[in-house]
Each structure stands twice: as structure tokens, then as C-alpha cells.
Amino acid sequence: MKLDLNGRTVQVDADPGMPLLWVLRDVLNMTGTKFGCGVAACGACTVRVDGQAVRSCVVPVSAMAGKRIQTIEALGSPDKPHALQLAWIAEQVPQCGYCQSGMLMAAAALLDKTPRPTDLDIDAVMTNICRCGTYQRIRLAIKRAAGMATGGAAHKVRA
User: Which of 145, 138, 144, 141 lies closest to 156 in space, CA to CA?
Assistant: First the structure.
């Protein structure tokens, strides 16, 4: 089966019913996407599919035919980090870091759809679980990234 993964076509030999998460991690050795719960509750496995945040632990790889998949590995690069990655660092979001790739992918999908999100927008979309409880920092980082992307003053947000 062929997948459009991070802007390139990859050939995958996997059972069509295998969850996308395990294809990414075990077949393609892309370990940035994390396993958390296996029931789509925590969001550690979040990737973007056609721009939408998707919990990859419950989606069969066969459902990905003809769709664009983006993982954390393609969100930014060391030379050109995504605004969210810069904001995550500036707001000191990561603690243990386990949930961060899923959080970043969900936040990227949010900003693509809602470039200037309100607290309500963020709360409605960011349903990923962070065991360290950095939710306030995540909200600040999303607003900071939104300001960077639109050239506004939101990057100076500090409550």
C-alpha cells in the first residue's frame, strides 16, 4: 500500500487493518508519534490527515489511501522550526514531553483552521491529555504562535 507521508510517497507492507500509529512506529520507524492509551482518549498519537487532527491509534492504515498524512517529524525542521515549536519552547510547555508531539499536531490543525483562536476555541479543540498539567502554558504557546504567524502582538501574551 502507498501512503502520502510528510510530503512524499512511501510504500508500506502492512495488514490493512493495522492502526496507522503502529505502521508509523513499527513499520516505518517514525517514533515521534507516541502510543498513549490505544483508545483515542489521550491524543499522544495525534497526527494530521488532510490537515485535520486524527488519533492514529484507532485509524486503520487502509483508511489512509489517497490522504495526506503529516507527523511531528514534518512539522518543522532544525533550520526552520514551526511557530508552534518556537512558542512551545518560549512558554516552557514541555515537562516530561511525552504528550508534546500529539499536542503540537493538534495545535497545528487548530491554527490552520482558526488562525487567531480564542480560549474557547483552544479548549474545544485541545482535548489531548497532559499528565504534567501544562494546559495554561499550552494555551499561551498557541496564542504566541498565532501572533507569530499573523504578525500580531499575540506572541507577547503572558497571563
Answer: 144
pTM value is 0.91
pLDDT tens profile 12-61:
999 999 999 999 999 999 999 999 999 999 999 999 999 999 999 999 99
Pick the last residue of a domain from 74, 99, 125.
Answer: 74
Yes or no: say if 136 and 130 are a contact pair by the CB < 8 Å rule. Answer: no
Looking at the structure, tell me whether residues 21 and 69 fall in a common domain. yes
Helices (H), 66-118: 83-90, 100-113
CB 60 within 8 A of CB 46: no
| Residue 44 shares a structural domain with residue 108 | no
- Provide the pairing of β-strand 68-70 with 46-49: antiparallel
Grid cell, residue 87, equals 512558542
- Same domain? For 65 and 102 the reply is no
Of 55, 74, 93, which residue constitutes the final position of a domain? Answer: 74
Structural domain of residue 6, as residue ranges? 2-74
Helix (H, G, I), strand (E, B) or coil at 54: strand
